Amino acid sequence: MSPLFCMIDNPLALSYFASEGQRTFALGPDATPGQVVSALTADYKHAGTVPILCSVYQLAAWRNHWSFAVSPVAQISATLGFPADWCTDPGLSAGP
């Protein structure tokens, strides 16, 4: 199911990943990194796979315009014992 990101939301991706990451998608644009880590940790118990959890985070971060000094991705790596490169923060370019 792709693309995750485009100029408008992908309704199929939103529907699928919002159901897998209910706690993460319940957060708004003013969420703190700690809240994101807590939500992702809880959602991991539901989603159960690292790739789905990464997509949940990336889509929620993109939708909410999250930009943190210390990425929740790094905190999740330490909390859940994931490899450091398990996920990246979304970055969209305006084009060439």
Order of helices and strands: HHHHH
| β-strand amount | under 5%
Q: How many separate domains make up the residues?
A: 1
Helix content: 55-70%
What's the β-strand tally? 0
Give Rg in angstroms: 13 Å
Please state the average pLDDT score: 85
Q: Count up the helices.
A: 5
Shape: globular
What are the main properties of this structure?
96 residues; mainly alpha; 5 helices; 56% helix; globular
Task: Give an overview of the whole structure.
This protein has 96 residues and is mainly alpha-helical. The chain has one domain. Helices cover 56% and strands 0% of the residues. Helix 1 crosses helix 4, helix 3 (33-47) runs antiparallel to helix 4 and helix 3 (33-47) packs across helix 5. The chain starts with 10 loop residues before the first helix and ends in a 16-residue tail after the last helix.
Which secondary structure elements does this structure contain, and how are they paired or packed?
Elements: H1 11-20, H2 22-26, H3 33-47, H4 50-64, H5 72-80
Give a brief rundown of this model.
The protein has 96 residues and is mostly helical.
